[in-house]
Every structure is written in structure tokens, then in C-alpha cells.
């Protein structure tokens, strides 16, 4: 019969642990410790401590910084979880030198350090630059929409919130009158208590909404229109993403193409990005201390979200080499001629009105045949609509009046006038010569433009992939623009430290 060694869980043992030996050379923890101790300046936190003459010694900010950066690099942002790791995980015990900071200390350190984080982000960026990780050849700008610590259910314009508050007050009144009724006849104590609790909760929420309405005006969006405010975090915005509508911030990153180092990181409480090109570029230039000449040598790429006249005017004034795609960029690119075949087939009803492809136009002979096979008459050879030139045709009244395809051709069945059809000939000459938008189109449609723009995707998108999937940072846990901005810079700084670890200091 086989024999095995005895074992028992009912025993205790003591293990000698050397903190030094837990942090192995070549590991991320080792490089992080070296970076903080030798390259960064944690003394920037010292002005916050006023315990020279009395009070308990505080946790060293260098230790807190190491713990927080290590936890964030593993996607752990909860202060309670970080505290637990400092008690249970040997790596965190070693890196914190068994300090075991309380979760409130960690939470306070993260949420109140946005100014210091900004300075540390710059210091890490300088290390990246010294290690030759920044090429300053091409920058790609893009944003990543992430939810924040606020519910979209608490969003609305002043009118919406007033309505919500009135609804709650009405519910409270209804419940109170119901209680009075019940008091007369007597009811189960637990049910009465639960209803009272609900009533108190509703009254408290209505009061909170009123306090918000008293202290805030309607919020204005980028375009100057009224947008929804949020009671919990009024700096955040309700925005559409590919995963649905969220309440959150757009984390914008300017990324250098050489090793995908983030050279500027800013969080904005808005979904639209078209006015963010200028602040992103100015922040990147300031962070890297670039002079005008250096700025002009860098190629700047951004997607159609950043394409608008004021952004192009800024690039033109500053003489920057920008490649900003417009929404029609793909449709003009012959390489994407049949890209729609990869799109999933939807079960949506086909468009009911005829499309322009169903009208047969012969520009040379200036004729047009409508979907019913009738010839249309040439109304105008060349007319200007906006900045474009069109040739216009119109159906014959008699044809259209009795046509069996009226429903699909005209705007409504009641329409009395015949169908008009305009075919685009091109843009006006003046427009072609002067418009910055047209110039950008021509630039980006050129072979060189397409080649440079094609590098944008591989430069900036993997950065967001790394932050959200590899690191695992999927939402902001703080509230308020300043704090969220600090958190975005913190996570961007970790991304850059990982680049130093991987490409400069020979990490595995
Ligand atoms: S409505 Fe007029 S233009 Fe349209 S298909 Fe019929 S005849 Fe042609």
C-alpha cells in the first residue's frame, strides 16, 4: 500500500521575509521603486504636512506613491482593496515596507494630489525623453470616454430636475395621506416603518434637488446650448459611446508615435472633442518645452471628431503640419470602396425613399431618367448650394401626378409639386481655393496624407486598449474635473512608466 507524508493545517510557522528580496531586479516593482527614489521628487508632497512640532508622524508620500502606482498598474483603484493588499500581499507588504496605511489615508492621498500628480507626470515624461522614448516626429490625438462616479439618472436640465422634484414631493404627500388613513385602522408595524423610511428618503432627495437648483444655473455645452446638468458631479457630462449612454468624462491623450508615450493627458467633461485639439497640442508643447520650430516639424493626426474650421484655422495660424480627417474621408478613399460589406447586416427596414443611385444621370448629355423610367427636364445646368455646385432636374407634372411610385419618390403623398433632383458637380472654385477645409481634404487625400494618417490608428488606439484592457482602468472613481483630471494623468503616467520599464530599463 502506498505511503504519503503526513500533513496538518493545524500548525503555525514563521517565515523570514526580506523585503528587499521580494522586489527583484528587472521586475516592474523594482523599476518603479528605482524611478520614485532616484528620478522623481516625492518632496513635492512635503508642503502638505504640518506636523513638524507635534502630532503623529505621517506616512511617507514616497511609500504611498509606490503603493498607489503599483496598485493602479494592476487595475486596482479601490482604496480598501489597496489597504487589504498592504496587509495580505507580500509584494505590497514589501514595497510599502510593512507600513499598512489605512484606506482613508490612501483615498485622501489620491483625491487631494491632482496638482502633485501633474508635476510627477511631467517628471516621468522627462525620464521618457532622456531615455529616448519620444521621437517628436508624429503626435496622434484622441479621446476615450469613460464613466465617472455619478449616475446618469441624476442628470437633467433645470426644467427636468424641477419636474423630478415635484414628482417626489407629490409622492411624499400621497404616502403621508395614506399613512394617516392607515393610522386610523392600524397596520403591520414593519410595513408602516418601511413606508416611513421610503417617505423620508424621497423627502431628502427632493431637498437635495432643490438645493442643487438653488445653487446652479442651466449648464451650457460647447456650442452654447443648454445641456443636462448632473446633481452628483456637475463637471461630468452625459455622452454617447459605442456601449450606450454614460455619465462621465473624455480622457484626451496626445501620443507620440515612436513608443506610444503619452505626452499630454487631460480629462474633459464633454462628449464633443472638436474644440480640444488646441488645448491638447498646447499642453503637449508646454510639457516637452518645444519651441515654435520644433512644433512645426511634428506631424499631428486626429480623427474626424477634431475636424472643424476653428481647429484648422489654429493649425494654419500656427503653421502646424496637421492631418485631420473629415467625416467623408473614408468614402473618398478607394481602399475603403467596399468596406461596408464587413458591416453586420441589420434587420432595419430598408430606406423607403429612392436614393440618388436610382436616378440615371448622363452629365454629358444633361439628361436624367427617374426610377419610373420617365425623362426629367433640366431645370438648371449649374447652381450653387452652399459651397457646392449642382445640376438640377425636375419631373414632369403629368408624370409625377399619376405615378405609381409617388410614395417612394416624393416627400409625402400629399405633395402636389413634381419631384426635383440635384446631382453634385463639385465644389465652387472660390471655395476650392480658399477653404481650409478643402485644403485639408486635399492634403489628407494625397498619397502622403493617407500614409501619415494611417499611422494614427496604430499610435493612439493601442494606448486606450492598454489603459482600459491591460491595466484594467475602466472608470473614474473620483468626482469633479480637477480630481478626475488628476486620476487621468495618474493612469497616463503609469502607462508611461510601463513604457520605461519595457523599452528603456530592459524589463521582461
Ligand atoms: S414621382 Fe415623378 S420623378 Fe418620381 S418616379 Fe414617379 S414620375 Fe418619376
Description:
InterPro entries: Tnp_DDE_dom (IPR025668), Transposase_InsH_N (IPR008490). This is Transposase. It comes from Candidatus Tenderia electrophaga. The protein has helices at 19-22, 28-39, 61-73, 79-88, 90-95, 103-111, 114-130, 158-185, 189-215, 277-288, 292-297, 309-317, 329-332, 397-401, 406-409, 429-434, 436-445, 447-471, 481-504; strands at residues 138-147, 155-156, 219-220, 226-227, 229-230, 237-241, 244-256, 262-268, 299-302, 321-324, 360-362, 367-369, 375-385, 388-394, 420-427. It has 508 residues and is of the alpha+beta class. It has 4 domains: 19-50 and 57-112, no CATH class; 138-148 and 234-333 and 436-486, 2-Layer Sandwich (Nucleotidyltransferase, domain 5); 158-217; 356-434, no CATH class. Strands 1, 6, 7, 8, 9 and 10 form a 6-stranded mixed beta sheet that branches. Strands 11-12-13-14-15 form a 5-stranded antiparallel beta sheet. β6 (237-241) and β7 form a beta hairpin. The model has no long low-confidence stretch (mean pLDDT 89). The chain binds iron/sulfur cluster. Iron/sulfur cluster (SF4) binds next to α14 and α15.
Amino acid at each position: 500500500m502506498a505511503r504519503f507524508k503526513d500533513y496538518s493545517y493545524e500548525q503555525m510557522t514563521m517565515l523570514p521575509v526580506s523585503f528587499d528580496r521580494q522586489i527583484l531586479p528587472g521586475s516592474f516593482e523594482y523599476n518603479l521603486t528605482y524611478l520614485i527614489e532616484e528620478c522623481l521628487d516625492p518632496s513635492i508632497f512635503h508642503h502638505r504636512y504640518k506636523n513638524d512640532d507635534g502630532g503623529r508622524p505621517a506616512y511617507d508620500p514616497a511609500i504611498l506613491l509606490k503603493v498607489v502606482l503599483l496598485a493602479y498598474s494592476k487595475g486596482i483603484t479601490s482604496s480598501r482593496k489597496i489597504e487589504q493588499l498592504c496587509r495580505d500581499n507580500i509584494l505590497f507588504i514589501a514595497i510599502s515596507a510593512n507600513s499598512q496605511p489605512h484606506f482613508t489615508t490612501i483615498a485622501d492621498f489620491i483625491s487631494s494630489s491632482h496638482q502633485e500628480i501633474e508635476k510627477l507626470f511631467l517628471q516621468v515624461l522627462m525620464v521618457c525623453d532622456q531615455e529616448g522614448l519620444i521621437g517628436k516626429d508624429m503626435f496622434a490625438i484622441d479621446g476615450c470616454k469613460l464613466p465617472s462616479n455619478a449616475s446618469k439618472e441624476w442628470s437633467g436640465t433645470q426644467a427636468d430636475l424641477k419636474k423630478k422634484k415635484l414628482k417626489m414631493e407629490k409622492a411624499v404627500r400621497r404616502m403621508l395621506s395614506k399613512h394617516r388613513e392607515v393610522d386610523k385602522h392600524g397596520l403591520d408595524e414593519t410595513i408602516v416603518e418601511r413606508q416611513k423610511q421610503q417617505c423620508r428618503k424621497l423627502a431628502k432627495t427632493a431637498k437635495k434637488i432643490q438645493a442643487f437648483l438653488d445653487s446652479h444655473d442651466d449648464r451650457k455645452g460647447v456650442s452654447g446650448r443648454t445641456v443636462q446638468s448632473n446633481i452628483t458631479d456637475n463637471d461630468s457630462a452625459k455622452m454617447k459611446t459605442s456601449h450606450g449612454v454614460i455619465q462621465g468624462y473624455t480622457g484626451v491623450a496626445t501620443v507620440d508615435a515612436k513608443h506610444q508615450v503619452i505626452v499630454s493627458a487631460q480629462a474633459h467633461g464633454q462628449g464633443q472633442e472638436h474644440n480640444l485639439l488646441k488645448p491638447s497640442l498646447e499642453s503637449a508643447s508646454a510639457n516637452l518645452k518645444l519651441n515654435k520650430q520644433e512644433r512645426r516639424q511634428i506631424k499631428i493626426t486626429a480623427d474626424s471628431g477634431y475636424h472643424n474650421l476653428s481647429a484648422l484655422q489654429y493649425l494654419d495660424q500656427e503653421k502646424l503640419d496637421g492631418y485631420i480627417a473629415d467625416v467623408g474621408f473614408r468614402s473618398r478613399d478607394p481602399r475603403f470602396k467596399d468596406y461596408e460589406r464587413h458591416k453586420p447586416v441589420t434587420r432595419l427596414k430598408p430606406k423607403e425613399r429612392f436614393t440618388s443611385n436610382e436616378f440615371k444621370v448622363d452629365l454629358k448629355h444633361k439628361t436624367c431618367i427617374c426610377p419610373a423610367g420617365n425623362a426629367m427636364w433640366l431645370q438648371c445646368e449649374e447652381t450653387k448650394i452652399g459651397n457646392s455646385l449642382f445640376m438640377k432636374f425636375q419631373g414632369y407634372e403629368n408624370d409625377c401626378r399619376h405615378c405609381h411610385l409617388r410614395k417612394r419618390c416624393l416627400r409625402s403623398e400629399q405633395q402636389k409639386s413634381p419631384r426635383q433632383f440635384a446631382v453634385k458637380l463639385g465644389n465652387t472654385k472660390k471655395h476650392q481655393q480658399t477653404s481650409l477645409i478643402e485644403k485639408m481634404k486635399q492634403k489628407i487625400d494625397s498619397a502622403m496624407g493617407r500614409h501619415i494618417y494611417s499611422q494614427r490608428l496604430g499610435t493612439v488606439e493601442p494606448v486606450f486598449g492598454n489603459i482600459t484592457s491591460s491595466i484594467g482602468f475602466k472608470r473614474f472613481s473620483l468626482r469633479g474635473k480637477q480630481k478626475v483630471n488628476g486620476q487621468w494623468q495618474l493612469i497616463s503616467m503609469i502607462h508611461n512608466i510601463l513604457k520605461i520599464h519595457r523599452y528603456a530599463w530592459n524589463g521582461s
